[in-house]
Amino acid sequence: MRRSDVGAIRTVAVVGMGLIGGSFYKASLKAGYRTVGLHHGDGPAALADADLVLVCLPPPAIVPWIRSHAAAFRRGATVVDICGVKSPILRDLADVPRDGWTFVGGHPMAGREVAGFENSLADLFVGASMILTPFADCPGETLAALRDYFASVGFGMTVVTTPEKHDEMIAFTSQLCHVVATSYARDDLVKDSVGFSAGSYADMTRIATQNENDWSALYLANRASLVPVLDRFIERMAGFRDAVAAGDADELKRLIVEGASAKRREIAARAAAPKG
Amino acid sequence: MRRSDVGAIRTVAVVGMGLIGGSFYKASLKAGYRTVGLHHGDGPAALADADLVLVCLPPPAIVPWIRSHAAAFRRGATVVDICGVKSPILRDLADVPRDGWTFVGGHPMAGREVAGFENSLADLFVGASMILTPFADCPGETLAALRDYFASVGFGMTVVTTPEKHDEMIAFTSQLCHVVATSYARDDLVKDSVGFSAGSYADMTRIATQNENDWSALYLANRASLVPVLDRFIERMAGFRDAVAAGDADELKRLIVEGASAKRREIAARAAAPKG
User: Fold this and answer.
1) Going by DSSP bridges, is the β-strand pair B129-134/B102-108 parallel, antiparallel, or unpaired?
2) How far is it, in rounded angstroms, from Cα A184 to Cα A202?
3) Cα(A244)–Cα(B269) distance, rounded to whole angstroms?
4) Could you read off the pLDDT of A103-125 as tens digits, one per residue?
5) Which letter does DSSP use for residue B41 in this model?
6) Distances (CA, A) of A35 to A32, A102, B49, B57, B140
7) CATH architecture for the domain at A8-161
8) Exposed/middle/buried for residue B247 (C-beta within 10 Å: 0-12, 13-18, 19+)
9) Exposed (0-12), middle (13-18) or buried (19+): which is A120, by Cβ within 10 Å?
10) For chain A, where are the E strands, in sequence order?
11) d(Cα A101, Cα A98) in Å, to the nearest integer?
12) Residues 165-184 in B contacting A (C-alpha not used; CB under 8 Å)
């Protein structure tokens, strides 16, 4: 691809009109882009003018859709998939002929506990982080144009990383949360909990109502990164349990201070992080 | 005690002016009670008029303070301790002579992540649950007067239960949350998490900044109830981990549905719960 083919993003095609696709559609319109919304089965004509194609389909549909539309993207276009797992997507797209267009993996750190276009919001991404996982040969100007676009639809920061680092971090910051919440809610005491709980318990179990098809697919797609994250967490819980059982106050204080210090350092790093 | 000694609560003495004591002090004043705030070392004179004494001291100070003031409470007074563990308090107070006054254990399901009178709020308890653990011989009119008082300072419901059931439920709804949060934050990946997280991770780790002295004391005071709660949670996490490692999608869906169904039943029960 010639450098001159990569320009500012003016026309955006959003494929898939669920919660996330709908929110990108509304946010792009609001930010002033010429925006087209496509459903999974729509023909390729609408792609001819798109500088940016956001593929917001269920994970198993993403690679087949991109493969079957590989010849329809315009020269200089950037195609970004929007889903929560990145290594398998980039691996499966590595051999797709990309004649003049660029693929970049994408994962917005935003969502809601409700699904569908009817729940999508133009301001869903305000202040959130957008993660991008490009191929190694991705032109710098493509990433610069994407940063501008994602900032313009509300994101507070864009992180560029490898698919492997993305998958490890998401196993920790998202999937482990969901495994903890569902495991928490599977205790018999849940049925007695009305009147015995405040904000911490509500925060800890809110996402227990996750959809079993979506989440089992995400856990399994990211199995290689998730299992070691689960193993380490279970080991730390068991260490804490043993200190309680042994009545070891010094060890408990040490473990609490370690967790509290790590969390405080993270809060400080978050406050100091560059935006945009 | 004669029934006629138990009347409506008009004068409230709050002992201990930290976050919770200060909030009871401000909420009682706002609700129109004659309210006295006492510090730990204040003399007994201020207790002579108090219909209700709320003992908001650190847990180890509660029983000694009540013992040493046992002769100072007025006839018909109700003394409620305010702290997060109940069986040891009631056990240690069982032999204290209660000449015309009544003791009831108390635990408000409300708090903040900041401490001290300067952070106390008149509306801290609005909509929260107040848990009461009376001795078996507690007069019904005492509990009725307490329900009225706690409703008047903002609580949405009052739950009367045994100290043992309280301690088991709190191990599950509060202490397990705090152990999970601190164990979560002790992973090396926390330092890389800026840009890789959304609301779930923030909700899950917010309380990791817990105070090591307060919380190690609470965990150990409730050791008998907490250890089995931790064991069951670790076992469920390990079962989930094994299903991920084995690539068993059916088992993962079964576990997720079990957690999601339990959480949905809890949400429905909460919506249907009687208030006040």
Assistant:
1) antiparallel
2) 11
3) 32
4) 999 999 998 878 899 999 999 99
5) T
6) 8, 19, 72, 61, 67
7) 3-Layer(aba) Sandwich (3.40)
8) exposed
9) buried
10) 11-15, 34-38, 52-55, 78-82, 102-108, 129-134, 157-160
11) 6
12) 165-166, 168-170, 172-174, 176-184
Q: How far is CA B17 from CA A165, B186, B224, in A?
A: 48, 33, 30
Q: Within an 8 Å CB–CB cutoff, is residue B246 touching chain A?
A: no
Give B166-272's CATH code, choosing from 1.10.357.20, 1.10.3660.10, 1.20.840.10, 3.40.50.2000. 1.10.3660.10
A27-59 pLDDT, tens digit each? 999 999 999 999 888 878 889 999 999 999 988
**Stretches in chain B below the pLDDT threshold 50:** 1-4, 276
Q: How far is CA B203 from CA A194, B184, B185, in A?
A: 20, 11, 12
- Please give the Cα distance from A106 to A123 (Å, whole number): 18
Q: What is the mean pLDDT of residues A49-77?
A: 94
Measure CB to CB from residue B266 to each of A168, A169, A191 and give the nearest one.
A191
Sign, Cα dihedral of A98, A102, A107, A110 = negative
> Measured between CB atoms, which of B182, B229, B264 is closest to A256?
B182
d(CA A34, CA A13) in angstroms, rounded, equals: 9
Confidence of residue A197 (pLDDT cuts 50, 70, 90): confident
Find residues 132-171 of chain B whose CB sits inside 8 Å of chain A.
157, 159, 165-166, 168-170
Q: Is B54 helix (H, G, I), strand (E, B) or coil?
A: strand
- Delimit the domains of chain B by residue range: 9-161, 166-272
Which residue in A65, A82, A63 sits closest to A12, CA to CA?
A82
Query: What stretches of B69-113 show up as alpha helix (H) in DSSP?
Result: 87-93
A260 vs B207: CA distance, rounded Å: 8
What's the residue count for chain A? 276
Question: What CATH class does B9-161 carry?
Answer: alpha beta
Residue A4 predicted with pLDDT over 80: no
pLDDT attached to residue A272: 86
Q: Are B128 and B156 spatial neighbours (Cβ–Cβ below 8 Å)?
A: yes
What is the value of pTM for the model shown?
0.88
How far is the C-alpha of B192 from the C-alpha of A91, rounded, in Å?
A: 24
Distance CA B227, CA B237 (A): 15
Q: B255 and A184 in contact by Cβ < 8 A? A: no
**Contact indicator for B245, A227 with CB cutoff of 8 Å:** yes
| Distance between CA atoms of residues A98 and A70, nearest Å | 7
Directed axis angle between helix B223-245 and helix B249-272, to 10°? 140
3-class state of residue B13 by DSSP? strand
Mutate to test the interface with A, among B161, B200, B222 (most CBs of A within 10 A): B200
Q: Which amino acid is at A54?
A: L
